[in-house]
Amino acid sequence: MTGDIVVAYRGTEGGESLDRSVPDFITDARYILMGQNPIQDGEKIDPYEKSQVIAANQFTQSVSLLEIVKKEYPNQKISTTGHSLGGANAQFASAICDVPAVTYSAPGVYDMLPKDIQKKVDAGEYKGQIINYINPKDTISGGALREDKTHIGDTYMVNSDFKTANNDYGMHQIDRFLDSIGAKDFHGIKNYHVDAFGNIDNSMLVDANTGEKIYRSPRFSIGGVGEVRVLMEYLEESAKKNATKCGRISKSDTTSSFRSNAAS
User: Fold this and answer.
1) Which long-range contacts (CB under 8 A, 24 or more apart) does 183-188 make?
2) 125 burial class (0-12, 13-18, 19+ CB within 10 angstroms)?
3) In this predicted model, what pLDDT tens digit does every residue of 142-180 receive, in sequence order?
4) What SS3 class is residue 164?
5) β-pair partners for 200
6) Which residues in 149-181 are b (16+ Cβ under 10 Å) and which e?
7) Following DSSP, what letter does each residue of 199-226 receive, concatenated?
8) Distance between CA atoms of 180 and 133, rounded to whole angstroms?
9) Which helix (H) or strand (E) holds 130?
10) Residue 259 needs a FRET pair 20 to 30 A away by CA distance; which of 94, 113, 144, 198 works?
């Protein structure tokens, strides 16, 4: 145990009451599907100004939470994680707050970032700092008609490249989407395997940027200094709780938790 802090962004509470689930679905529609910008260029977030935070969207709330954790624990190593839209929140907040992140099945957020942060992404400043794992068969994180190229930092596809993974679907992308959220669960957290030290342990990874095949975690370590060790159990349990009748689209909400005694 290292005493480091992991901020874990929880998924959409689809099975909960409307006052908890509706804001999550609105976030999905406005920012992921419609591409609205959570933060305007030049806008600054004051995490201690309640009127600003309460009125803001879930992405700005995720930044506020992370800024508060950084201020309250200045001597701790802090990282973020999340699955699905929770992973999108982790990417977004980590890029703005400059902390490491590991995400799973998250859509990319490049287009939502302020221009000054986009320039840092373009310059490769988040390479090795923000790591995204995606299932190329998954419509939500892998991309619908074409591969999603808007993730921040490094992105690795599990078990296959995008083209090979989706050859059988051809023009039947609706079927692929239904398989992503239905019984085949391409979007689910169980598509990712980890070893005893928290390293990603799928049979193969494909670097989405270079196409290179990798046969062990890019953050490989022995002793728990690799992936975020707490996340698989936490995110899997969260995904189960948030399962809806139509499938398991686990998205983010800033009802987030930060945990100590976890590896980065």
Assistant:
1) 185/247, 185/248, 186/135, 186/137, 186/138, 186/139, 187/84, 187/105, 187/135, 187/138, 187/139, 187/140, 187/141, 187/247, 187/248, 187/249, 187/250, 188/105, 188/239, 188/248, 188/250
2) middle
3) 888 788 899 999 999 999 988 888 888 877 878 888 888
4) helix
5) 194
6) ebbbbbbbbbbbbbeebbeeeeeeeeebbbbbb
7) -B--S-EEETTT--EESS-TT--SSS-S
8) 15
9) strand 130-134
10) 113
Residues 6+ apart with CB under 8 A from 129: 94, 100, 101, 153
* CB half-sphere exposure, 161, CA atoms < 13 A: 10
Q: Side chain identity at 189, as an amino acid letter?
A: I
**Structure tokens, 74:** 């200045």
For 8-54, the pLDDT digits (tens) are: 997 655 455 444 444 544 554 445 554 556 655 445 566 666 555 54
Q: Rounded CA gap, 102 and 222, in Å?
A: 18
Q: pTM (2 decimals)?
A: 0.75
- Work out whether strand 4-10 and strand 253-262 pair parallel, antiparallel, or are unpaired: antiparallel
Token output for 127:
């390479």
- Cα(36)–Cα(38) distance, integer angstroms: 6
CA–CA separation, 241 vs 130, rounded Å?
27
